[in-house]
């Protein structure tokens, strides 16, 4: 089977995704009978490109990483797109048969406006509306509009997947969707933002807030606008997405009670560490009566708490469930490859789906004798 | 959809499973359109029972828990079964149409002979051979004969599921099968035996080995033959099952290098604890060149190791993967309900399967215009 991709956003994550697809080409063909071809790329600053026969996304990733434009010159047949949404609609239109065959996927990795969830939500609507599946590493759509988009996806009979939105490629959403049937999630707590986790770890060892922040930015871990991390917006968006998907809540990031980390936490972090405790930015959701509430705030945790032992780059989520009690999933290494894998894992989920739907139903031979009612 | 069950083994786990099915009847009907009916029960010591129209398994569980036999008197139509395998074959024969419709499931929870994997393996073969799916909380089949039984399951087009074999209902096998597509597991380490974990925790606080063991037995946590826990056999069987399924190894428990816990570990445990370290019975598997090797042995771990922080009843597994680096899954509460849920989750997996296979393929209207090749 061939899946065709429209890449919307072509930053670090999408470029690593493009190179990962290249590295895995033979294995995807061998193990999943899956060929993946990029037909369109649209970016905010580097232009756009479309080719029905496929683009060399890995080569384009290299070119863009070196500061070049997506296309050296406008190829024949290229249409000018006035916006990314127009580009998506146009690309789906050009690949209408592929979309009809359920083999067209938009891969969305744009930068999020944390106050609106845009432009990701508009991209998701355009893709599902045209008959393309959606795979995104963006937390915006699930944080702001999960139920509306899930309904749209259901009606369109196309998938809306976002495994990379929380804890990179560690399968939080997949776990709940596929591996915990019949389980009700009653609440959760976790450490889901890497920048603040790194910073608190540095601060408890005496490093100043601003110094730790500069280090995170140099490492490319912090968001472009670091206040999104520091003020807890990133964690709040992830918390809303988790609560919406795992607990069927209807939260937005704004409705998550939110306190971020501040300069004056350094002494508290140092004191906590000395006392065998750890200061962490903890995301929580749970029931208050019949209402689901969520919050993000610094919390002092006992040293033997699972969340206390997390290194800078580690994230973890502890689910409180009805039948299994507490189970936890821990991401012990993070990075671009993990997020790129999240996109790939969602593509494989779609390929399995399409494959199952295509499989010829087994012929039913005559039933053997039986004494059934 | 109705699934019919043949319960093979009716000890603590199966009896809790029977009461759980009763508690969840309305939710299974509402959320999964699933009715589950027990048609046969066979035990080693309490006799057997069969009723095509269904047994009241929860009531029978109560009776057996109070020391009673399964049946007050032999019901009309009952056949005497000379062995549990005969009972399985006979029950499938009586429910041949259900088996043919892929709606008959054997639920296997017998006591394991750790040196052979029997009688569970014979039960699995009999069930798959007759066209029943297999759900088991038993580690024997996956530890001793995973590949042979998986092939048999594939040929029979019936499922062979065993989520409860390791870490109760925490979805270790489901996670790898459903939620990590395209990921290669390169190795793992974990704490997977509860009795020894409890005992080491008690010993590091100065409790004597034998005292700790008696406590575990009183709590019903230790295996009936506690040497299976203490000598590391239980952990070795789980390690073999994990390596076979997650890494495609061909191990048996005997081929896992194995050291259990001994009386003389008390002082080492106390010293380790004082030095901020923890002594744990660690299960490991990994590659040595192209060969997969596995071992179970006491290891002294740094205090901030994820495995070090586990309480007595907690288990954890850290997977080392190619694309995601390390991810961990932690069971923070264990017990009969968790194991019973594992069986239920496997049943829901089967119901989803059968439901998907039955779903009518979507009619394909004429394709819209498109410029595809």
- Name the structural class of chain A: alpha/beta
Biggest beta sheet summary of chain A = 6 strands, mixed
* Portion in helices of chain A: 40-55%
- Give the overall pLDDT of chain A as a whole number: 90
Tally of strands of chain A: 12
Give the low-confidence spans of chain A. 76-80, 360-373
Molecular shape of chain A: globular
Radius of gyration of chain A, whole Å: 22 Å
Proportion of beta-strand residues of chain A: 15-25%
Order of helices and strands of chain A: EHHEEHHHEHEHEHEHHHHEHEEEEH
Looking across the biggest beta sheet of chain A, what order are the strands in?
3-2-1-4-5-6
Number of helices of chain A: 14
Oligomer: homodimer
CA distance, first residue to last residue of chain A: 43 Å
Largest interface: A-B, 66 and 66 residues
Report on this model:
The structure is a homodimer of 373-residue chains. Chain A has 373 residues and is an alpha/beta fold. Chain A has helices at residues 12-23, 25-32, 57-65, 84-94, 96-100, 120-130, 140-156, 172-179, 194-204, 209-218, 227-230, 233-247, 265-274, 336-358; strands at residues 2-8, 35-42, 48-55, 104-108, 133-136, 160-161, 185-191, 257-258, 277-288, 291-302, 315-321, 326-331. In chain A, α1 runs antiparallel to α3, α9 packs across α10 (209-218) and α9 (194-204) crosses α13. Mean pLDDT of chain A is 90; it is low at 76-80 and 360-373. Chains A and B meet through α2, α5, α8, β12 and α14 of A and α2, α5, α8, β12 and α14 of B.
Précis, in short:
The structure is a homodimer of 373-residue chains. Chain A is of the alpha/beta class and 373 residues long. Chain A has 14 helices and 12 strands.
